[in-house]
Amino acid sequence: MHKDIAEILYTEETLQTAVQKLGRQISEDYKDKNLFMVSVLKGSLVFMADLMRAITVPCSIDFLSVSSYGNSTKSSGEVRVIKDLDCPLENKDLLIVEDILDSGVTLSYLKKMLAARGPRSIKICTLLDKPDHRRADITADYRCFVTPDAFIVGYGLDYAEQYRNLPYVGILKPEVYENK
Ligand code: IMP
Ligand code: MG
Q: Residue 75: its pLDDT value, please?
């Protein structure tokens, strides 16, 4: 285990089992639809890569990048679009893929912005959900795990751009970010 990790919450195996199950569910729900998966960079990259390979119906993908945190562990409440989608959304059944739904500020902003572009439907899929922290009125349509109230890294999730490459999801030791 990495020295900065206090506890592993979800091992590689646990993550794979959950992602495969979710992929089967989404494949069932989007059988007769025009699935368009949008990964919110960078945190959802690893989840997106595994999830799309667990989906058996035709789909296309795109990426967008937003920033709301800087190097802090608390959301600033401000959302900035850094990279927008390449494709239009008309006639698409949009599935927004996120790493973690925390305050919900990022996703509620994105959902409104993308809804205005006229997709046929919009749903939200998140690997992790921290419902106790919610400030915006938003819920996930699909989620793998409800997580405890701690700062979490690994499997795409970062602190100050580090730890994204850990193959598991774990709690970051508070001493790593305290007094920073
Ligand atoms: P929200 O706007 O507060 O819901 O923030 C969502 C974004 O904040 C996520 O996509 C993550 O990038 C980041 N985030 C929130 N909580 C954590 C965490 O515990 N670890 C790492 N990133 C987090
Ligand atoms: Mg993110």
A: 59
- Name the residues around ion ligand 2, CB cutoff 5 A: 43, 99
Residue-level pLDDT at 133: 85
Q: What is the token pair recorded at 50?
A: 């595994």
Nearest CA to ligand 1 atom 3: 103
What are the phi and psi torsion angles at 29 (to 5°)?
Answer: -70, -25
Residues designated catalytic: 102
Question: Within the chain, which residues score under 50 in pLDDT?
Answer: none
Helices (H), the chain: 12-29, 45-53, 105-115, 174-177
What is residue 102's three-state secondary structure? coil
Residue at token pair 């508070």: 174
Residues 156/170, Cβ–Cβ less than 8 Å:
no
- pLDDT at residue number 168: 98
Residues 6+ apart with CB under 8 A from 86: 62
Q: Is the pTM of this model over 0.85?
A: yes
Half-sphere exposure of 133 (CA within 13 A, CB side): 20
